[in-house]
Amino acid sequence: MESSSQNRRQLWIGIIVSAVSVVLILLIIDPAEIVNSLRQADLVLIGWSALAVLAFMIIRAIRWRYMLANEISWSQTFHIQNIGYMFNMVLPFRLGDVARAVLIGNVPPVTLAKGLSTMVVERILDMMFIVALLPFTLAEVASLPTWMQDGARASGFVAVAAIGVLILAANQRQLANRWGTAVLNRIPFLHTEQWLNRMNEVLDGLGSLTRLKDSLVLVFLSIVVWIPILLAYHWGITAVGGHVTLLGASFVVCAAALSIALPSSPGQIGVFHIGVTAAMLALGQPEGAAGGFAVVYHALNLISMIILGLIGLASTGATFGSVIETTQKFMRRRQVSDETEQGVEQSEK
Fold first, then answer.
1. Contact at 8 Å (CB) between 88 and 97?
2. Phi/psi zone of residue 214: left (φ > 0), alpha (ψ -120 to 50 degrees), beta?
3. For residue 318, is it left (φ>0), alpha (ψ between -120 and 50) or beta?
4. Angle 192-205/320-348 helices, nearest 10 degrees?
5. Which residues fall within 8 angstroms of residue 219, CB to CB, at 6 or more apart?
6. Are the C-beta atoms of 300 and 89 separated by less than 8 Å?
7. Spatial CA neighbour of 93 closest among 16, 13, 20, 21
């Protein structure tokens, strides 16, 4: 009951944040400017953006399969990945990530634990790339205060250092567990064993980083995977009347990636739009192009993910309902397990 109440609260918080974001956009930009931008949009460039999104998904599947030690076919990886992305666009709480971990865990010899660990690692690698890229894009934003530029550059160095720490931890598991135990034991409100298990789940997903060649390949793929998105943004912005360099488009990508980390309704409605719009305005782009691109790209992404997800369901023989049911069963089991561990910890105290 407590978990259900918490989920409802999180859902409502997300809906409120999304609604406030939409209202802010309409206060900042005249809706008529957005409509005018959409009317004049270049459909050919939008088509190229759609192809770039498809390329992004193809390369992501290649990277995910590599993280799974190439133990299953690329087509299975691609379709299951797309099912997860579709669920993320239409359901709350990023259930799509859990769904694809569960689905991939049902494809031998991949295990559920390995599927879950790669989900976590994938998100960490993506966020580190964005944080490391951001400082290089700030030259495009002349109006940004010096202290903000310095802070962003510092975060870039931190992201690079964090990647180094992950590589070290993946190669020195015993050392990582000793340090993890020492740190967690000093935090009274955390269950040391439970969090150590989660840390090791992440490190399991980094198994490819324990070999130099594989480490270089994974880092390479983690960079290459974002190139189609940078192009998709560049073409999409140009399509609605904007004029930015590829570096400027990269700044908008970073702003979008950071904004969708906020609570929101399913599909990141509102938070994505406000992040993209604010970044575009910071680059000195017309209001209509700023709002128009946010609308066009979000719609393009939503439609693409749903189409690819439906193809994935048809290809794997799964149904929307069966995936939801399987995911919910797993989440209930995990919740019971966590509550049991917490009860044991409290009884020990």
1. yes
2. alpha
3. beta
4. 140
5. 163
6. no
7. 13
Return the amino acid letter for 66: Y
Residue 266 is given by DSSP the state: G
pLDDT along the chain (349 residues), means of 10: 68 88 91 93 97 97 92 95 94 86 91 83 84 82 67 70 76 84 80 78 68 80 95 97 94 91 84 93 92 96 96 93 87 67 53
- Tokens 């939503």 sit on residue: 302
Q: At which residue do the structure tokens 């700030």 appear?
A: 138
**193-217 b/e with 16+ CB inside 10 Å = b?**
ebebeebbbbbbbbbbbeeeeebee
Using CA atoms, how far residue 82 sits from 2, 114, 156, 233, 313, in Å, is: 32, 18, 30, 20, 9
DSSP 8-state symbol, 144 = S
**CB distance 166 to 206 below 8 Å:** yes
CB–CB of 291/34 below 8 Å? yes
Measured between alpha carbons, how far is 74 from 326 in angstroms, rounded to an integer?
23
Q: What is the pTM of this model?
A: 0.85
Cβ neighbours of residue 51 closer than 8 Å, sequence gap 6 or more: none
Distance, CA of 117 to chain centre: 15
Residue 125: HSE in the Cβ half-sphere, 13 Å Cα cutoff: 26
Q: Which residue has the tokens 């109440």?
A: 5
Contact present, 272 and 256 (Cβ < 8 Å): yes
> Do 18 and 271 touch, CB atoms closer than 8 A?
yes
